[in-house]
């Protein structure tokens, strides 16, 4: 769905009017789920919390269905971006843990968007936040910022588990935890640190979702198919445009456009 700002020669646009990069994985798999499963890169986590979270999701099929319905709009795009950077495919599932793939998610600690970026991190990675707009809710801009940040964390710690823990807990907190363990002669892997309960559960939740995507039938769940093709295309406007008018030009309901 897309719309063009009014002006000379303006017209309604459809997906077929605008070329897009189909990506390297577009023809290899029929569904995005297959594409994600084929590119898993994280090691299994030997924690009983993984099983706890598998059971939590399995007992809430309606919640999982709503989350998948929201993710359907964005998964193809995010998988493309994750693959371009050579990151594990599980990273594309992270918004399920952060926001259940809700672009308008907002919590009391002020993170926002599907990636739940806090204001300072958003600013560090170039996301505008003012009265007019909060780019943390812009799926394209926020995805770029979140993946940039995760790449930086991986370079800092050399471990996706520690990078993900840092994304949740903060790089300074993880750095200090590593220093404490090193001073005590202890291991410094993810499971060896004393960390807040939220961070302790963070990666097990992701691993639980990973396993459910890999084998939904094993958990009594059925995931709606997500075709391995673009859900949306992008149209850049050279001026401000009223949302209702843009939705009309895109031939779609305002609620869907928003």
In short:
The protein has twelve helices and no strands. By secondary structure, it is mostly helical. It starts with 31 loop residues before the first helix and ends with a helix.
| Count of helix runs | 12
Name the average pLDDT.
89
Rg? 20 Å
Helix content: 40-55%
Structural class: mainly alpha
Order of helices and strands: HHHHHHHHHHHH
For the secondary structure, the number of strands is: 0
Low-confidence stretches: 1-24
Please give the largest β-sheet.
none
Distance between the termini: 11 Å
Shape: globular
Strand % is under 5%
What do you see in this structure?
- Helix 2 (48-58) packs across helix 10, helix 7 crosses helix 8 and helix 8 (160-169) crosses helix 9.
- This protein is mainly α and 258 residues long.
- It has twelve helices and no strands.
């Amino acid at each position: 769905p897309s719309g063009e700002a009014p002006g000379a020669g303006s017209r309604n646009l459809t997906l077929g009017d605008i070329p897009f990069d189909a990506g390297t994985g577009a023809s290899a798999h029929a569904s995005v789920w297959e594409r994600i499963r084929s590119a898993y890169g994280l090691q299994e986590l030997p924690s009983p919390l993984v099983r706890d979270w598998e059971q939590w999701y399995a007992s809430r099929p309606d919640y999982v269905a709503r989350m998948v319905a929201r993710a359907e709009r964005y998964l193809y795009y995010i998988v493309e971006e994750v693959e371009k950077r050579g990151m594990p495919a599980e990273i594309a599932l992270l918004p399920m843990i952060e926001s259940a793939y809700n672009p308008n998610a907002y919590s009391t600690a002020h993170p926002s968007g599907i990636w739940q970026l806090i204001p300072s991190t958003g600013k560090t990675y170039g996301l505008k936040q003012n009265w007019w707009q909060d780019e943390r809710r812009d799926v394209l801009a926020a995805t770029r910022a979140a993946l940039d940040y995760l790449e930086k964390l991986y370079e800092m710690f050399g471990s996706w588990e520690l990078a993900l823990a840092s994304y949740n807990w903060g790089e300074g907190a993880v750095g200090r935890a590593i220093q404490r363990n090193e001073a005590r002669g202890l291991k410094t892997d993810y499971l060896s640190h004393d960390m807040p309960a939220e961070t302790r559960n963070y990666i097990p939740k992701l691993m639980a979702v990973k396993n459910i995507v890999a084998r939904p039938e094993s958990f009594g769940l059925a995931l709606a198919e997500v075709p391995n093709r673009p859900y949306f295309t992008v149209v850049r406007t050279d001026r401000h445009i009223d949302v209702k008018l843009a939705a009309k030009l895109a031939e779609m309901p305002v609620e869907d456009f928003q």
